[in-house]
Amino acid sequence: MVAEVSSMASPSAAAITLPQAFFALIWILVVLFYAANTIGCWLRPGSEHTQYRQVPPAGDADKDDALEAQDNSEENPANVADSPRSASPVSFHFTKTASVCRSVILLGLLLFFFYAGDVAHWFPRGLRVYSRDIFLFVYVLIFLAAILSLELTPETQKNADQILNRHQTEEWKGWMQVGFLLYHYFRASETYNTIRIFIACYVWMTGFGNFSYFYIRKDYSLKRLFKMLFRLNFLVAVICVVTSNEYMLYYICPMHTFWFLSVYVFMAIKSEWNYDRRIYIKFIVYFLTVVLLWEIPAVGEFVFSIFGPYSPLPILAYKNSLKEWMFRSGLDRYMTLLGMLCAFFYPMFDSFIRHLEMKTGSFQDIIKGHMIKITILVAALIPTVTWASHILLAMNKIDYNKLHPYLAFIPILFFIYVRNITPLLRRVNLHMFAWCGRITLETYIAQHHIWLQDNAKSLLVYPPLANYPMLNFMFATAVYLLVSELLFQITNVLSDELFGTRDPKGTKGLWGWIHDTPMSQAKWITIGIWTIATLVTLILSNILRL
Question: What is the CA radius of gyration of the chain?
Fold first, then answer.
């Protein structure tokens, strides 16, 4: 028995707050707007303008020419906006508007599910009861299922065996997220120390990934900044409105937002220093800043008080205190710096590994390369095993937390080396975990409301499955993952419409439209957007004070 179901929770008569009513009103207006436009399109005379002309079927010999003609056609959806004589501009713009409207409507329905699950409590609560046997059984079973989704990147594909490639890092995030979620669901307190390492890995990836992006692309634009802030905070912001929860309840979001901003500032200020020895000065300043903020708690609390419980925008306050923020962010305070250092020295590490794996040369040189790899592995294994046996598995969480900020780098660097030790391992990835890794933000946020309840302290139980805890776990997980995937897609649609896509043929988004608009019009559009953003900020500020 995994969980004992508590008495049936009756629907709550919780009062609707002003922000919730405001959000519901916006949703209703979007529904009405979408319905009116849809009906108008169908009732409009000559409604065939809503259909795009398709290129006639072509034989094999003409297929490439036909595809090229379709791509360049003025009536192709990707090009019609730029066409000087578009026959159906209303249709094209409605297509984009309809996509946004559908996303907002679906988002509203999903958020109503969130409200019903964890605010109105229309579902029974389940008690979390830990069983090591069941916890390990489920985790191992998921790993076995993931093995069935194993993919091997062909050697002929570009960067097939790249160190820390995208598929690998997403897989890494995925299996850690599975452990993190099961830790919450089954209340597996004995795995707390391991979960702390998982979270440190996420923060490491924030430093590694964002440093790599800025270093390679040199894109320090406000568009990139706001697009990342939107990705990290849009979903949690609307959920805070719907549930009246504090932002810090979802501490992963403010924590990753802060560390992303720290990388952005690090790379954007004196960006020309990023490509010569002066970057070491920046690393030293960054390190000293972290030391000042967290090794001297009074300094950190003073600096972050601008977002504390008594500030106009108390986004870092939780239960009228900054203690939660200082604790959560401080546990992994050096991991972002470690990630940036790994990204900076990545070319050297990559060249070193490639040199050891050289396929040309004498037999002795090839053997020597393998022996060096094994020697490094053994040398890294000794401190890792010592750390695991004497600290990770031996200490309670209070004592462990005192050492975690200074020793978490050991398992992270060891895993990176082992996972990339051979070209074959780098080419292999488990697709199921890679998929989970792409929706980690959504699964983290959604778990509080449609998988668990009461700030992740009890289970959400579907009434027909109240006496079947494992069946309830299976069904609730399926619904929860489906909703998380939908939220991920919705966020991407809205992000693309706001900030545009990377594809030159794709939409430029609202940001690009403002950029291309004459200055006399753009300034009023910008003022309007910032006015709306200010109102939303004030609403969220009001929620966080409740």
Answer: 26
The Cα–Cα gap between 346 and 349 comes to 5
DSSP secondary structure string for all residues of 348-392 = HHHHHHHHHT-SSS-HHHHHHHHHHHHHHHHHHHHHHHHHIIIII
Paired with 5 in beta bridges are 126
Which tens digits make up the pLDDT trace of 153-184? 887 787 788 999 999 999 999 999 999 999 99
For residue 199, count CB atoms less than 10 angstroms from its CB and return exposed for 0-12, middle for 13-18, buried for 19 or more. Answer: buried
Question: How would residue 59 be classed by pLDDT, with cut points 50, 70 and 90?
Answer: very low
How far is 451 from 461, CA to CA, in rounded Å?
8
The number of CA neighbours under 13 Å toward the Cβ of 530 is 7
pLDDT score of 82: 37
**CB 457: neighbour CB atoms within 10 A?**
13
What is the CB-side half-sphere exposure of residue 361 using CA atoms within 13 A?
Answer: 11
Phi, psi values for residue 104, rounded to 5°? -65, -40
The count of C-alpha atoms lying within 13 angstroms of the C-alpha of 313, restricted to the half-sphere facing its C-beta, is 10
CA distance linking residue 238 with residue 536, whole number of Å: 10
DSSP string, 262-281: HHHHHHHTTGGGGGSTTHHH
Model pLDDT for residues 108-145, shown as the tens digit of each residue = 999 999 999 888 889 999 999 999 999 999 999 999 99
Separation between Cα atoms, residue 510 and residue 517, nearest integer Å: 10
Asked if 458 and 2 count as a contact pair (C-beta separation under 8 A), the reply is no
Check if the beta carbon of residue 452 is closer than 8 Å to that of residue 460.
yes
Amino acid at 543: I
Three-class secondary structure assignment of 295-319: HCHHHHHHHHHHHCCCCCCCCCCCC
Please list the residues that pair with 150 across neighbouring strands.
430
Q: Is the separation of the CB atoms in 101 and 36 below 8 Å?
A: no
Which helix (H) or strand (E) segment holds residue 53: the answer is none
Tokens of 277: 């020895």
- φ/ψ (deg, to 5) at 150: -60, 135
d(CA 503, CA 484): 25
- Residue 107 neighbours by CB under 8 Å, 6+ apart: 238, 487, 490
Q: Which residues of 63-76 are buried (b: 16+ CB within 10 A; e: fewer)?
A: eeeeeeebeebebb
Alpha helices in 44-131 (DSSP H): 63-72, 89-118
* Contact predicate 469/138, CB 8 Å: no
State the Cα–Cα distance between residues 294 and 320, nearest whole angstrom: 20
For residue 148, give Cα distances in angstroms to 143, 288, 318: 9, 47, 42
Helices 509-516 + 469-499 axis angle, to 10:
10
The CA distance from 2 to 185, in Å, is 10
- Please state the φ and ψ torsions of residue 76, each to the nearest 5 degrees: -70, 135
Domain boundaries, the chain: 12-76+86-122, 123-499, 504-546
